[in-house]
Amino acid sequence: MTSNDNLMLMKNESSDKTSTDNKQVHENQQPITIKKILVAIDKSEFKLKIMMYAITVAKSLGSELTAIHVIDKSSLKAAIDVLGFYRGGKKEAYEEAYEDVLRKQAEQLLDEIKILGTKEGVKVATEVLMHSDSIPKEIIEYSRKNSVDLIVIGTKGLTGIEKFLLGSVANNVIAHAKCPVLAVR
Hints:
The protein has helices at residues 3-28, 47-61, 73-86, 91-119, 135-145, 160-166, 169-176, and strands spanning 36-40, 64-72, 124-132, 150-154, 181-184. By secondary structure, it is α/β, with parallel strands linked by helices.
């Protein structure tokens, strides 16, 4: 046996050991299944891109797709307080009407993804979530309660003072969600 033969033999033995180690790792790995996808839709100019990513992933994986729009209770309360102040202090009279307007706007927003999903052969369930104290917490809680396997969210939503006041929704969801998050930018 020459020294080259010894080198080859040692190399083959080493690669066999690595191969065996990899087999053990792969045998213990369970396949990842993504059956339920949640997409959080906002009113940003990037919503179409977020919708299309969610639809494409759902179609590719044969997953259920649910789209939600979360209305923040604090911004709702602030708007009603301002309306009530300028209309003579009768904010209760405007609260229900304003909530109806916001709900209808949110439903119209979510209808867009239903239409796009239908064109791609993907059924999209939708839900408007109102009276939330925190948009990220509401998204995370909804995903937990509904056993969501993947959240799709945009990273470019509100800007300026709105982002400062609300914080970054995407960053909070990414940091605290119990399932993977696909951030679309």
